[in-house]
Design brief:
This protein has 44 residues and is an all-alpha fold. It has one domain. Helices cover 45% and strands 0% of the residues. It has two helices and no strands. The chain is rod-shaped and about 50 Å long.
């Protein structure tokens, strides 16, 4: 059983859902493209 109040648990779940770290949308799976751009492997 959780030691946190139910309202705190609900808020935590809502914050997880609203987090920019949640992989949704067109940029969900970049396959490491950001790292390749940062490393200079991919450029214009």
């Amino acid at each position: 059983m959780s030691s946190t109040p139910p309202a705190a648990d609900a808020l935590l779940h809502l914050l997880w859902l609203a987090s920019p770290a949640l992989p949704v949308g067109g940029f969900s799976y970049s396959e490491g493209l950001e790292a390749a751009v940062d490393a200079g492997i991919v450029h214009d």
